[in-house]
Amino acid sequence: MKKILHHRRSWMIVPAHDPKLADTIAQYKPDVVVLDLEYSVAPKYKEQARANLVKTVSTIATDDIEIFVRIDKASRWADVDAAMHRGLTGIIFCGVDEESEITEIDALINTKEKERGIDPGHIELVIILESAKGFWNLSEILQASPRLSAVGVGRIDLTMQLGPVPQHEFRLFRYLMTRTLVAGKMHGKQLLGAMWRPDSRGGVANQESTKLAAQQAKLMGYTGCICATPEQVNPMNLGFLS
Amino acid sequence: MNNRVSRVSMFVTPTNPRFIDKAWTRGGDAYILDIEDSIAPAEKQRCRTLIRESIDKANKGGASIYVRINKPFVDADLPYAVWRGVDRIMLPKTETAEEMQHAHQIITALEKERGIPPGSIELYPMIETTLGAVNIHQILTAVDRKIWSMGGGGGYDMAVNLGIEMFADFDQYAYPIAYITLASMALDIESTGGVFIPNTSGRVDQSDQAILQAAALHRAGIHHSGALHPAFIEPLVKGLTPTTEEIEWAKAVIQKFDEISSVGESIGTLEGKIVDIYEYQKAKVTLDWALECAEKDCFKENALKRASS
Amino acid sequence: MITTPENKNKRSSINSNNPMPKYIRRSILALSIDDPILEKKSFDSWADAIILDFSKKSHCNWQQDILSRMPSAIAIAAKGDAEIFIRINNDFAISELEATVFPGIAGIILKGAHSAADIQRVSSALDSLELSRGILANSIEIDIEVNNAACTWNLLEIARSSARVGIFLLNEQELCANLGIQTQASLPFDPLEYIKSELITVATSIGGQAVGMSYPLSLATDSIDAETLRKGILRARDTGFKGAVCPHPDWINLCNSGFRPSEEEANYYVKVIEVFAEGIKRGMASVPIDGKMIDVPVDLRAKVYLEWAKRAKARDTEKYQAHQKP
Could you report the per-residue pLDDT of B7-35, keeping only the tens digit for each? Predict the structure, then answer.
């Protein structure tokens, strides 16, 4: 497994079915391209998005650009199957609740590596936590696969319905960032996440607030974050710049 | 029928007629008949004997009834506390799973003996010490008895345990409260914790503080709270209920999401705002909660009418 | 555990209903046994506790070297009546313990532990050393210097791993480095807020206590103006810390006067106890003072606070007496 963790600041989401994804990547130059099969792909484009991966994964990956595929938890088996092609660096799995989900995906990736002629153990696994169960079982989850290279704090305000508190943060946000940091560092993983604030997070965060969220996360030990929009790539790169 | 809506639960002392006789007119969702710290040691036994009749006094306005017992006197208190009409037994300063198991066994026997549906009375562990906080997962999984909502980890007793001054302008219980909140959520128990609302005066009787508290809890997505003074009741009941605008918005979001889903799409916009699976789920929670609140309000209204006629 | 004169443990005799704080260790100063003026620095510091550090000489048998110098270092550092602790590195714990554990120390500060197994290993080594060196069994404390992610994650297991575990000290510089938290810049919040609170919670849950400082003074290595320091100590105290490791001797006086109830607070609590007692007499369990509710836990806290103030004062008297000896 190649380790260039400190370069992976911006993880840009592009829908895997987007016909213009090559242009988007060329224009925004993220550290990591995340071909999405999850949130940004509506059900009616799902098949097309999966089918596109054979071509895109192998053509887009260069020395400068690493390719990950974000799978949908509900259809993770078919999604992993569709994503596993030469050129792929890793799989992003959001919403993990417990270690058994990881051991199972790890086994599936093993099989697909063999089938598709990919070096054994080459494919990385990145997990993004989005549920209370996931945060509770964090340490066990992080030990469930040797492929696991990074752990992130996801869209928890949305997935866990954590509203804002008077301190201009989301409820529990800093605690979950801290808990993830401690477990992630204990197990030697890269930490992904940003100090998002209410009214300015994820898809609606502007460049300035994205940069601030990244800067504060960097001070807290985080080194990269998912970019919900391409416009967040640059501020994320600047915010996480060492 | 009554339900589990407890936008505000307030302590009342069964031994004081001034409080117990009037409580039902105050509009609380739940009253906590206290045998613990608001009852002087010499009054405890008299208080126990008053619990049964206090239930029918305090619930005349449709409120749910909780009873807070004493940690050192669980065996002595429970036979006076477990009655039909009691929704929740509150076990103060819970620190271990064994304490839960012990109380559970006694309650189970009393339910059987007194013809109360088995398991219908909630056993609520109050986490008021550091030991209780670090043992929260074992405590919450100790017995097979549903816990409806969970908070705690701060407050007066925790301050004693930590040996700290209270009412600082920063969160003095950051970890215990957050840890309890996470453990509860991980066990699918509705959480009422994790919001710090500064109150440097330490006063518990000012309704402007109650309005701030209600607004903060509501924004954070919390449905239940407690109070020590009747001035807190109305602002909390009102402030934790979804507003008409919120309900209308939730309906519109659900309708919009259904529309986009029906054509195989997953993200749309409504009045410039994103509508997606998360907004849809949030809207559903709002509508469910609004419905439960409406049921509770209707129940309270009818009870009040009966009591006044 | 048993208190003995020779291990100078300032343990509390108060019962579990009146639980805090177990030790009066408001100011902790680290000094090296190689320091040529160790005696003067210890004596003049007025610290409640002194941590002795040592360096291993490479050209000779370091164990023999330390072994021969440690007993006198302990004795001279204790002349001002500070409790004496030896800092042990977890990676070399057993050989370091052999060279440093002698009568007169209250405990060892174990730095860099990762898990409960580390504590258990040290605890068994102490069992034999206590036996072979004429020290009362189970009298030497193990105190935990938290400086890494694993130690933080496993804190509760560590706390419960041995009855010897007493206090938890936060080494913020090293913990931040281990977690990748940048210490040079400032955030609008304390990046370690939840870890500090966890340390305090876990330590208190086993009847121990935590030592640390509030942000950003916790990252200070220099001397700080008195007013800023006073405020920082107050905040640390009201988070639940019972003392601080002082990076500079300037801190010690302010820590000694700050990690305890103030005169004003003590006076208020005397009033609380009086008003509550009167209320009880009149059959009330709760009485208001200025809109604040005074009931059983508030009354109890008042008593804890007054007890704490009394014991802090008693500790000051002990140290004063030690300083009067010729």
Answer: 999 999 999 998 999 999 999 999 999 99
| pLDDT for the residue C20 | 67
B179:C201 CB<8 A: yes
Predicted complex ipTM: 0.95
Q: Which residue from C minimizes the CA distance to B42?
A: C283
Establish if B168 touches chain A: CB-CB under 8 angstroms: no
What homologous superfamily is domain A5-239 in, according to CATH? Phosphoenolpyruvate-binding domains (3.20.20.60)
Which residues of B have a CB under 8 Å from any CB of C? Answer: 13, 36-43, 129-131, 133-134, 156-157, 159-166, 168, 170-176, 178-179, 201-206, 228
Q: Chain A contact for C320, CB < 8 A?
A: no
The band of C284, judged by pLDDT with boundaries at 50, 70 and 90, is confident
Residue A28 pLDDT: 95
Candidates C221, C13, C28, C214; CA nearest to C106 is C28
B159 vs C194, C198, C301: nearest CB: C301
Tokens at B155, concatenated? 């407050």
Residue C130: count of CB within 10 angstroms of its CB: 18
Question: Structure tokens of B82?
Answer: 């477990």
Residue of A nearest to C185 (CA): A219
In order of their start, the domains of chain B are 9-239 (3.20.20.60), 244-308 (no CATH)
The residue among C231, C233, C213 whose CA lies nearest residue C221 is C213
Q: How far apart are CA C251 and CA C247, in angstroms?
A: 8
Among the listed residues C20, C15, C17, the one whose alpha carbon sits nearest the alpha carbon of residue C241: C20
* Closest to C269 measured CA to CA, from C297, C241, C243: C297
A4 in C contact zone (CB under 8 Å):
no
Tokens of C127: 């069992």
Q: Are strands C287-289 and C292-294 parallel, antiparallel or unpaired?
A: antiparallel
pLDDT in tens, A89-127: 999 999 999 999 999 999 999 999 999 999 999 999 999
Instruction: Read off the pTM.
Output: 0.96
Mutate to test the interface with C, among A182, A189, A192 (most CBs of C within 10 A): A182
Domain residue extents for chain A: 5-239
> Left (φ > 0), alpha (ψ -120 to 50) or beta: where does B155 sit?
left
Q: How far apart are CA B43 and CA B34, in angstroms?
A: 11
pLDDT digits (tens, 9 = 90+) for C307-316: 999 999 999 9
